[in-house]
Amino acid sequence: MPVPSITLNNGVTIPQLGFGVFQIPPEQTREATLTALELGYRHIDTAEMYGNEKGVGEAVRDSGLRRDEVFITSKLNNGFHAYDDALAAADRTLADLGVDAVDLFLVHWPMPGSDIDYVQTWRAMEKIYADGKARAIGVSNFQQAHLERLFAETEIVPAANQIEVHPYLTQNSLRAFNADHGIATEAWSPIAKGAVADDPVIGKIAQEKGRSPAQVTLRWHIQRGDIVFPKSVTRSRVQENLELFDFELSPEDVAAIDGLNRDERTGPDPDTFNLIP
């Protein structure tokens, strides 16, 4: 069944399900991405920080698909938040991917303790967008306070906010804030780095549906309106993660999974994370 799309606040459409390449080694990225594209994925999420943009670009070119058939997201790395550095970093990303523009370009982390204020970084992102080097721009790991500063001091509302979301960190408040301001929520670590596979609540629903716990969890995201991009280098798992659109969770199923929230992160806290790789 076809993957549904979500329309961002500037009219650009993004497939709700994509393929993530976080922690895929550069030498394996081309093959893994090609597999995803062959199976039917049309949305690839990468980042300069991952070191594998070149492999993504090679896969898109070698897939035989037109450039406009594949939605590519990449992200500005933490060490390039200064205005001119951000502009140069965007050009490097385009060169590594071998494209004229990315479909979505994100500020990877707000870096609140950095000497370079993320408001300056966002002004560079606005320039990148104005120059046609990104069809849409957004942020990643931004909290409500970070977004409120952007609203007050810059011109463009981010099209998306990519944040950690899974059944143990439902992020309902931040997701609602995003929605109230026309910002799409993208969910990274959507299955909590595999932790949900052993959850008895999700396991019971999976057994009833004849699905895997990962499929049930990804379907929960889809029904909530999250954009997700699970990662795997195993062909059968990549295929399984695509098979989310021929079943539904009941309202009771969704509520049961919602009830698993314990505000538990698998990754860094955006309010304190300031790592420059």
Summarize the SSE layout with pairings.
Blueprint: E1 5-7, E2 13-15, E3 19-20, H1 26-39, E4 43-45, H2 53-62, E5 71-76, H3 83-97, E6 104-107, H4 118-130, E7 137-140, H5 144-153, E8 160-164, H6 172-180, E9 184-188, H7 200-209, H8 213-224, E10 227-228, H9 235-242, H10 251-258
Parallel strand pairs: 3-4, 4-5, 5-6, 6-7, 7-8, 8-9, 9-10
Antiparallel strand pairs: 1-2
Helix pairs in contact: 1-2, 1-9, 2-3, 3-4, 7-8
Task: Offer a quick outline of the entry.
With 277 residues, this protein is α/β, with parallel strands linked by helices. It has helices at residues 26-39, 53-62, 83-97, 118-130, 144-153, 172-180, 200-209, 213-224, 235-242, 251-258, and strands at 5-7, 13-15, 19-20, 43-45, 71-76, 104-107, 137-140, 160-164, 184-188, 227-228. The protein has one domain: TIM Barrel (Alpha-Beta Barrel), CATH 3.20.20.100.
The strands making up the biggest β-sheet line up spatially as 3-4-5-6-7-8-9-10
The CATH architecture: Alpha-Beta Barrel
As a percent range, the share of strand residues is 5-15%
Choose one word for the global shape.
Answer: globular
Low-confidence stretches: none
Write down the CATH class.
Answer: Alpha Beta
Separation of the first and last Cα atoms = 39 Å
String of helices and strands: EEEHEHEHEHEHEHEHHEHH
In terms of structural class, how would the helical and strand content be classed?
A: alpha/beta
Major β-sheet profile: 8 strands, parallel
Q: Classify the fold: give the CATH topology.
A: TIM Barrel
What Rg do the Cα atoms give? Answer: 18 Å
Number of domains: 1
Give helix % range.
25-40%
Number of strands: 10
